[in-house]
Model the fold of this input.
Amino acid sequence: MHELSLALDVIDLVTEEAGKNSLKDVYEIHIEVGEISGVDADVFQRAMEIVLKNSSLGKAKVKIRKTPGIGRCTACDKDFSVSDFLACCPGCNGYPSEIIGGKELRVTSIIGE
Amino acid sequence: MCETCGCGQPDEFTIRVPGQNENNEHFHPDKQGGHYHTHSHDHEHEHDHYYEHDHQGDRVIEINKEILAENNLVAERNRGFFEGRGVLCLNLVSSPGSGKTTILEKTIRERNEGYPVSVIEGDQQSMNDAERINKTGVPVIQVNTGTGCHLDSKMVSKALKQLEVGNHGVLFIENVGNLVCPALFDLGETKRVVVMSVTEGDDKPEKYPYMFISCQLCLINKSDLLPYVDFDVDKFISVVKKINPTLEFILISAKTGEGFEKWFDWLDKNRKCHVT
Ligand SMILES: Nc1nc2c(ncn2[C@@H]2O[C@H](COP(=O)(O)OP(=O)(O)OP(=O)(O)O)[C@@H](O)[C@H]2O)c(=O)[nH]1
Ligand SMILES: [Mg+2]
Ligand SMILES: [Zn+2]
Done:
């Protein structure tokens, strides 16, 4: 359900940015959703469609790009895929010292005129 | 209300003080109005019109803004409010029925020193929890989120305008019982506390890692029921530590009071280090 309230936040954010840039119509909203951001990209896509239909941005299409979860082990200097928080370093079998990708949850760009 | 199914809008919420029911306040941020929720509607027919325009004047605007930016901004303002008053604010999250309200009742009645305590109760509906806290005599306010499944920083900010929060005290926020959604929403709390009861499966952390990763303390409640359930405390702790190595644990029972000294010490320690 939090996908729905996030979708409403996107409408606000895009409406404001469209205004600032004097866009009359917005045709595309590009969003990045990380694999380990806590947001389900497919649910979010549907939530965005529902919310957009009832907004002043009804012409806009949502394009979600999923970004992979990537952990880094600083000891082994290795990057590896983490699709959950239990993934381990292929070098030392330790937990990632940092997460360098996959937590994104942002509007990257909009297209309009 | 939604005409199709009777649900509320996700960001429609109510703030109520026990005993003052006439002054109910409703907030309808009401973005573009209308009807938005996640029932399965038919989508086949829609969106054929996207490319009707000729794209000649199209411009690409780079935005790169966090979707949670607005929530995070208000959360930082709340945090400033707490820091300015030396208030330790704890956001209590859990599955429904883990014992949050019972823990709060006992904590308020038996706490070590007479420091001020206030409570924000988040529930989808009903004033029950606020009324239970009201009987302990501390200031309390109920936020009903309607169909919303979590508190957000704006709701807390609104609630703070009507709630008496004593300097150098503790503000407890009991979030909506839900291990998924509240994880994403910073309320401006000093620390986040997850309450886990031993009647739940000890595989919860693997199922809901976001919640366990975002907390600083885990209260394992209902320890009095350990003899009757299949909950392996050591295994639970070792699994959670893989997800969040710095999480602290206290095993308690809100029924028998087991572990409450440790919990009170934790509160005192965190209150004091927060004040300086
Ligand atoms: N045996 C036992 N029961 C407990 C304990 N703590 C709470 N309970 C019981 O668990 C039930 C739920 O407790 P609440 O305090 O209402 O739980 P909650 O987390 O506030 O519930 P929601 O607000 O609905 O999510 C009640 O029947 C309590 O009496 C405990 O330590 N031991
Ligand atoms: Mg409760
Ligand atoms: Zn390694």
Remarks:
- Residues A 73, 75-76, 78, 89, 91-92, 94 surround zinc ion (ligand 3) (CB under 6 Å).
- Helices of chain B lie at 69-85, 100-110, 128-134, 153-162, 204-207, 209-213, 233-243, 260-275.
- The first strand of chain B starts at residue 13 and ends at 16.
